[in-house]
């Protein structure tokens, strides 16, 4: 049977696009390959939000040149933001790539892989087999647990043009999906076994249903009413688009995961202005105060960029102080990285060494806050959803709590992928806390979030936690 391998870089928007490609591939009769070497079609879904992501995508293209040399029949496809930006360069300088599709050409990508399907040997393919793959395997882009999380795109593009960001240049302006389509896709993901649905958009809380006046709060409420929905999350919101009405809608939905990402980027007004973030520190603090009032006890996380062009030591110190004061549960921190075609890439840059030094100072402060947040879980039992075997130790399972903390625990005796994919909610007694998350011991396993769960026999105590 023909098979496809999809390698995804970047944000949840790319994850959602990869799910779409996997769906189209499954409908055309492809199975999902475990490695690129086993696949007939290899898709590289790229990101260009940072220079490092761009470099690694070109590195992977180089690797796939060897694959093509050893098997000229394999079809190589590049998609995602880097493909949108460098389409012509790739077509001329990467001749081993069979096709390049930008972010707005996913439908054509699906049509192309469907058309290629006939080129591959088809001795075992039947309609029935395709159906099984659609239901059980389309979203297992990489493993048997991937389908537990469903990513549903609610909006494409962004119209805000932050001066550091490539997204509006490669994905275009806001294009909101009709709410009815979103609800239908969520229902399909639930039917396929998704335990957690994440609504994805570059500025997800700016969502407006094109046919009605419904806003993001209404969308959340409509999704939460769907039969079978267990947990709901969303990414990435913009502080400017949160209203009191949206927070109040959120507070009324017990299905929403209790975590809120409120990207700040800098705590200095002159830098926020240069970034074109469309809020001041005062506005950000008002939104944060509203969030804390309506969503009491939620984990609040943020994003920070250091060494943005023009950032003085005083601007940076303002960010450092604010991060220390607010004790965010987590912060994604980056040194500013110039992206071709964005205004800030033409401005005078801060030396890389100074950028790294600022990042380290900020990380030292935030790491203490992360550790404090994780320390508060010590001695408790948390319910968490499996992500898969731990990347660092294959004898352990990695999971995520509802507030998005990584918890790792030894696999109990009798562990099997099939059993744990069917009963993926784990109750874990937290034994140790770290900056990156927690470790613990698995006590119970449940098929659904609200189930009481069955005691796990042969639970293995995490020795590091004792
Ligand atoms: S809000 Fe700014 S950072 Fe976010 S996607 Fe839009 S332009 Fe990029």
How would the blueprint of this fold be written?
Elements: E1 3-8, H1 12-27, E2 31-32, E3 41-46, H2 51-70, E4 75-80, H3 81-93, E5 99-100, H4 106-116, H5 127-137, E6 149-153, E7 155-156, H6 167-171, E8 175-176, H7 179-191, E9 196-200, H8 216-224, E10 231-235, H9 244-251, E11 259-261, H10 269-275, H11 281-294, E12 299-306, H12 313-326, E13 330-335, H13 352-375, E14 381-389, E15 396-401, E16 406-410, H14 417-422, E17 425-433, E18 437-446, E19 454-455
Parallel strand pairs: 1-2, 1-3, 3-4, 4-5, 6-9, 9-10, 11-12, 12-13, 16-18
Antiparallel strand pairs: 7-8, 14-15, 14-17, 15-16, 17-18, 18-19
Helix pairs in contact: 1-4, 8-9, 12-13
This protein binds iron/sulfur cluster.
What overall form do the CA principal axes indicate?
globular
Give the averaged pLDDT, no decimals: 89
Which small molecules are bound? iron/sulfur cluster
First CA to last CA: what distance? 48 Å
Kindly provide the name of the CATH class of the largest domain.
Answer: Alpha Beta
Q: What CATH architecture of the largest domain do you see?
A: 3-Layer(aba) Sandwich
Under CATH, the topology of the largest domain can be stated as Rossmann fold
Fourth CATH level, the homologous superfamily of the largest domain: Methylthiotransferase, N-terminal domain
As residue ranges, the low-confidence spans are 122-140
Cα-based radius of gyration, to the nearest Å: 23 Å
Question: With helices defined by DSSP (H or I, 4 residues minimum), what is the helix count?
Answer: 14
Main beta sheet: 5 strands, parallel
Structural class, from helix and strand content?
alpha/beta
Please give the share of residues in helix: 25-40%
Strand coverage percent: 15-25%
Strand order of the largest sheet: 2-1-3-4-5
Tell me the number of structural domains: 4
């Amino acid at each position: 049977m023909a098979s496809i391998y999809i390698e995804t870089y970047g944000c949840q928007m790319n994850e959602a696009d990869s799910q779409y490609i996997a769906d189209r591939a499954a409908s055309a009769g492809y199975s999902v390959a475990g490695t690129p070497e086993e696949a007939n079609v290899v898709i590289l879904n790229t990101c260009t939000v940072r220079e490092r992501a761009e470099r690694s995508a070109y590195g992977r293209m180089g690797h796939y040149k060897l694959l093509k040399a050893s098997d000229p029949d394999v079809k190589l496809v590049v998609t995602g933001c880097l493909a949108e930006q460098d389409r012509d360069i790739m077509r001329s300088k990467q001749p081993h790539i069979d096709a390049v599709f930008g972010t707005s050409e996913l439908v054509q990508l699906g049509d192309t892989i469907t058309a290629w399907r006939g080129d591959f040997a088809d001795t075992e393919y039947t309609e029935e087999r395709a159906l099984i793959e659609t239901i059980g395997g389309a979203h297992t882009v990489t493993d048997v647990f991937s389908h537990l999380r469903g990513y549903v795109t609610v909006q494409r593009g962004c119209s805000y043009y932050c001066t550091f960001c490539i997204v509006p240049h490669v994905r275009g302006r806001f294009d909101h999906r009709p709410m009815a389509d979103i609800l239908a896709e969520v229902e399909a993901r639930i039917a396929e076994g998704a335990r957690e649905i994440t609504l994805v958009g570059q500025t997800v809380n700016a969502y407006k249903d094109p046919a009605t006046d419904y806003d993001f709060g209404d969308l959340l409420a409509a999704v939460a009413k769907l039969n079978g929905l267990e947990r709901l999350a969303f990414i990435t919101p913009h502080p400017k688009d949160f209203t009191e009405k949206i927070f109040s809608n959120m507070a009324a939905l017990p299905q929403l995961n209790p975590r809120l990402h409120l990207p700040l980027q800098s705590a200095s007004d002159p830098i926020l202005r240069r970034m074109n973030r469309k809020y001041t520190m005062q506005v950000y603090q008002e939104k944060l105060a509203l969030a804390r009032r309506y969503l009491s006890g939620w984990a609040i996380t943020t994003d920070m960029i250091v060494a943005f062009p023009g950032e003085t030591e005083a601007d940076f110190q303002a960010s450092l102080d604010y991060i220390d004061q607010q004790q965010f549960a987590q912060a994604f921190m980056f040194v500013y990285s110039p992206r071709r075609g964005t205004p800030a890439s033409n401005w005078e840059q801060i030396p890389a060494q100074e950028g790294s030094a600022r990042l380290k100072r900020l990380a030292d402060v935030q790491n203490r806050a992360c550790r404090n947040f994780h320390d508060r879980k010590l001695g408790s039992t948390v319910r968490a959803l499996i992500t898969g075997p731990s990347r660092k130790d294959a004898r352990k399972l990695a999971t995520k709590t509802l507030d998005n903390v990584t918890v790792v625990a030894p696999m109990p005796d009798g562990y099997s992928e099939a059993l744990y994919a069917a009963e993926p909610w784990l109750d874990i007694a937290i034994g140790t806390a770290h900056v990156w998350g927690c470790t613990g011991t698995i006590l119970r396993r449940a098929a659904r979030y609200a189930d009481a769960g069955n005691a796990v026999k042969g639970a293995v105590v995490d020795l590091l936690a004792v």
